[in-house]
């Protein structure tokens, strides 16, 4: 009958110490005894990816909705000319024909002066009267200061005078104006007045 030898605990510890001593003796004979060796531990880690997206019910343009928009620049009101001209040519012709008489000569000189040195301008913003040799005398007033407009036909109604009364009581007498009725109605309409002409009876030249 075979017998199995059992080692005592003291014998087992002695054997383990002998093996450890032999391993240390072998490692000391290696060419690189002082080379450090790093032991890397490989760990398997599970990575989780998060996907963040903006809500689809809000458009991207909403981010700039709080930014005030720049006010659009408005162009100033452009001034348009309704009438720009001098005295009616009929006034000059009629007074030249009657200028041969000494009594009518002052009126003829006044007609020549109106024909060459007087100019009327009616725009959508103002009334302008330009006079003088070089146009240095100029008067401007707005339609807002107009109180009343009257017309006085001359000759057979081909031309006439337009008398504009301002709110301060000043009267502006525009002599020998062509298309005087049309211009007077335009002034009343621009002044927000009833377009009813106060016309007197026709007078001479």
How is this fold's topology laid out?
Layout: H1 9-27, E1 81-85, H2 89-97, H3 105-117, E2 118-123, E3 126-131, E4 137-142, E5 146-154, E6 159-166, E7 171-178, H4 180-190, E8 198-199
Helix pairs in contact: 2-3
Task: Summarize the structure in short.
By secondary structure, the protein is an alpha+beta fold.
What average pLDDT do the residues reach?
73
Low-pLDDT windows of residues: 1-44, 47-56, 58-75
Order of helices and strands: HEHHEEEEEEHE
CATH architecture of the domain at 81-191: Roll
Largest sheet: 4 strands, antiparallel
- The outline comes out as globular
InterPro entries: YdbS-like_PH
Protein name: Aldo/keto reductase
Domain YdbS-like PH: 117-187
Pfam families: bPH_2 (PF03703)
Description:
There is one protein chain. With 205 residues, the chain is α+β, with helices and mostly antiparallel strands. It has a domain of 111 residues: Pleckstrin-homology domain (PH domain)/Phosphotyrosine-binding domain (PTB) (PH-domain like). The chain is 25% helix and 24% strand. The protein has a four-stranded antiparallel beta sheet with strand order 1-2-3-4. Strand 2 and strand 3 form a beta hairpin. Helix 2 runs antiparallel to helix 3. The radius of gyration is 56 Å and the shape is globular.
List key phrases describing it:
25% helix; 4-stranded antiparallel β-sheet; PH-domain like; alpha+beta; 205 residues; 4-stranded mixed β-sheet; disordered N terminus
